[in-house]
Amino acid sequence: KQSDVPKNKETHTGSLIEQLTTEKYECMVCCEVVRIVAPVWSCQNCYHVFHLNCIKKWARSPASQAEDGNSGWRCPACQNASMQVPKTYTCFCGKVHNPEWNRNEIPHSCGELCGKKRQGLDCPHLCNILCHPGPCPSCPAFVTKTCECGQTSHSVRCGQSTKIHCSNVCGNTLNCGKHSCTEVCHAGKCSPCQLTVQQVCYCGNNFKEVLCGTKEEFSDGFGNFSCQNICGRKLNCGRHNCTQVCHPQPCQLCPRLPQVVYRCPCGQTPLSKLLELGCVERKICTDPIPSCGKTCGKPLPCGGYEFIHTCESLCHEGECRPCSRTSNIYCRCGFKKKVSLIFFLIAAITFMCDKRCNKKRSCGRHKCNEVCCVDTEHKCSLVCGRKLNCGLHRCEEPCHRGSCQTCWQTSFDELTCYCGESVIYPPVPCGTQPPECKKTCTRPHDCDHPVYHSCHSEEKCPPCTYLTQKWCMGKHEVIVICFLLLFQLRSNIPCHLTDISCGLRCNQMLKCGMHKCKRICHKGECLIDEECRQPCTIPRLYCNHPCMAPIAAISIATKLTDLQLGDSVEISRLITKKEMKQARLQCDEECLALQRNRRLAEALEIDDNSDPFNIRTPGPKYSELLKEDARKDLKFVSDVEKEMRMLVEAVNKGKHTKKSHCYPPMNRDHRRIIHELAQVYGIESVSYDNEPKRNVVITAVKGKSFCPSNTLTSVLDKEMQSRPLAPPPIPHYKQTDKTTGDSGLSKPLKEEPIIDYFDVQD
């Protein structure tokens, strides 16, 4: 109700009087109605009325303290800071303590004239109505006031804040004292004079314009300002110029006049003594000053903390030569020093070293880390930023030692539990947990079982512990009644448990269709990425004994047909990693001999490809099957050998250690030819992709790949030239074997399937 602020003072005061009289006004702290006989306190800034006890509690609470901590406590309504906490119950005008209620008077008033001075106005009259709440009304008296320029006067109501302006020109004298204000009647002081005047410097060489009436505008007779240049005016001798900076006073006497100079240039010997020794007396300022012949000894502008350097030249006129000595200069923190080669060095000059300060700052958390630090307190300028006790806000004070202060944020909303039965009334300090509630939780639950836990502030409810009946993961709970198997649910299982193991064997049929799972009751499939490893129980054909071979080995045997047809077979699922390691061949005597020869060749620096004693085979060995395939397609073999030779020569002559070539997709016979030829040339070969786009990629390695002396095509040519004419074909008969007794015609041999072992290298 009191949030609707009246438009003027009269309605504000009338509204407060009406609400207090009818007991409809509420205290902002406790939200209770302000009774007629209850002690109250009224804010002198916003005129809100509070219970005296409520405002005392509020003033002592941490939430009421001002932001800077030194300005007292804040009003709950207008946030105006007050230093003193109210202690006594007084009327609105403050004259009477503990006023008694009178039916014919305003509640909480003394019934006498208010007599308070009206705030914010220059009205000399006091409030002339009875003691009242709210602001005092405007003064009803009339007074005579003059306009802003003082030329006219008007009769206005006392305390009127409106300024009176006439239409006349102001005409008041400006700050320069020469010109008058040309503005129409205005409030406040007249603006400074905006006219500009020209000024000349003391030496007369420079000019500038300034506003009329400023301090720079006034002159002392020699000029108005200094241009900071050399004066340059002729001295009284008429031969030399002034060397001082532009100055207001007359120039000084010529420093070389005979009546001014009494000593030699270094100042150690009087000229009178030099005249006695035969020096020529000076007549005018241009005559040279006699030299005494001693060391100059004037202090130079260089030097260090230890000593001052002096001029080492003989007595001379003019400035001294630059110092030829060096000085030690210390850094700002005194950690480093360096030898200075600067001629004109000021003794107080310092430099900054690159050492970073490792001392802890005042907070004890961060390092100073300043370069060439000279600070003694090492105050931390970072913001603390740690979380306060509420867990929502962070400390905004400068980084400090110890614990942070409690969070000063306060909520004026009611804090309730989830169901709303328990309430904490404002003000509520930040971080306050919701109140405890003894009522049963009313949140929605996943199950329909009765709820036994109390109302809570956590979003997730505790798990339901109601005892239910559930199946185990394998549904193994079986009971036997009268030779009948009955499946039964497990009892006394808490509702929140989902995956239950009964502890019995799984006994689910595996994919092999022969065995059952021997694992304890489990979740999911029995075998996911593995094959059955249990022994085969099928009886053998001849002896009726069980096979006892692992199912994985049988699976490998069934896939040999695909392997013979040139397809790749994935066996990682059929054997374990341990079996794969055990399947690696052991080194024999031939391996040891090869290692011994390799070490001997490395010691003697013999290349593996070299054959100085011609002890190796005279040429490569080509298999009969490869020769037979080459005779069928000689052009294809010739092109393949040509490509391999070019690849080997390119890798041996080039910078790269490896070079590869990819053949287009081709059939299985052509791929086998490439694999066998690559083995002769020492080239790596691998088949990629699936049919019908399966292709071969060959890779030549420097130092390993080589070109054989005889190519396959040349070997075939030699064989064709040396081969005799073929006799007519003779039928073959199988001779009698003395050991076996077999006789008769030989049966045609069964052609073994040709397996391209290189073509399965994926």
UniProtKB/TrEMBL annotation:
Name of this protein: Transcriptional repressor NF-X1
Gene that encodes it: Nfx1
Subcellular location: Nucleus
Keyword Nuclease in record: no
Phylogenetic classification of the source organism: Eukaryota, Metazoa, Chordata, Craniata, Vertebrata
Location of the RING-type domain: 27-79
Region Disordered, residue ranges: 721-751
PANTHER family: NUCLEAR TRANSCRIPTION FACTOR, X-BOX BINDING 1 NFX1 (PTHR12360), TRANSCRIPTIONAL REPRESSOR NF-X1 (PTHR12360:SF12)
Gene3D superfamilies named in the record: R3H-like domain
Pfam families from the UniProt entry: R3H, zf-NF-X1
Main location: nucleus
Domain of life: Eukaryota
Domain R3H: 634-702
